[in-house]
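User: I'm writing a short report section on ligand binding and want a predicted complex to refer to. Could you take this sequence and beta-D-fucofuranose and write out the structure as tokens? A short remark afterwards would be nice.
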Amino acid sequence: MITRRSLLQVAAGGAAVGAFGLRPAYAELPKLAQKDTYKIGFAQTESNNPWRLQQTKSMQDEAAKRGWQLVYTDAASSAAKQVADVRSMIAQRVDVILLAPREERPLIPAVMEAKKAGIPLFLIDRNVDASLAKPGEDYVAFIGSDFVEEGRLCAEALTKAVNGEAKIIELVGTIGSSPANDRAKGFADYIKDHPGMQVIASQSGDFARDKGRQVFETLYQAHPEATALYSHNDEMTMGAIAAMEAAGKVPGKDLIIASIDGTKDAAQALMDGKVVVVVECNPNFGPASFDAVVRYGKGEHIEPNLVNKDRVFTKENVEAYLPEAY
Ligand code: GYE
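Assistant: Sure. The structure tokens for the complex follow:
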């Protein structure tokens, strides 16, 4: 079994952690020298959806603006490849690693190896298992959204839209990823107090449009009594809408839909009345991440969790958002 202690020992090259709470020097968080420009690694998880493409663009734009070198990798939906990508960044001696960990557990070794190599690492947009690696100790900080809150906001808006009565299909994100775990939790916690709100089927669509379509089709065939959809991201939502329409159903009438992200397609679906709420998950990480790196290089204390501010979009306010949508 992986435990935090065994991982710390791996990170420490097998040596025992010192007695009386004293931790050896290599157990400290790596420092960052203050420089005018940095060579910065960005380990992306996949590029099969507009959210990811926008996130990558935000990193590239910020690097170009500041004249920093960006070492970019795309794990193509494989946690194993992402671990290898981080290793190659360590071998190239980047100054800092920005890691968007695909899943909570398989990326732990990458986090620990960067630490052992003396390279500061920030987690971007997704988290790792907090019992195995901690911000301020094993990596500098997590920068991203509050996914539990996103799930709660979806539940709140959906409950209101259906007057507290719905049979809900839930399309879950990538299994083992922090947004899937936390968006499920935030939603479930809220509807616990609303007995008319029932999740009748729940399955992963891997945050992807095609998979979302297939999974929704199967679940809806098995549960034609469904009256609502809670989908962990807009890509799966768009897949599900395609499946509903192919089945002759009207999204927004036959099924009331709550979604998360804020893609252009979802914003349009909101305008068209097909979706009732989109809780924002902002993919524009460049400015906040690079600012945090600069502050860290100056020796400033970095808060362990840098939480993005997300908005709630409905038909009433989405028009003003459209020019920003991606
Ligand atoms: O919601 C989804 C993406 O990790 C917050 O991953 C991110 C999620 C985002 O693929 O669309």
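A remark for your report: The pocket of beta-D-fucofuranose is lined by residues 49, 51-52, 125-126, 179, 207, 233, 235, 260-261, 281 (CB under 6 Å). The CA atoms of residues 51 and 283 lie 6 Å apart.
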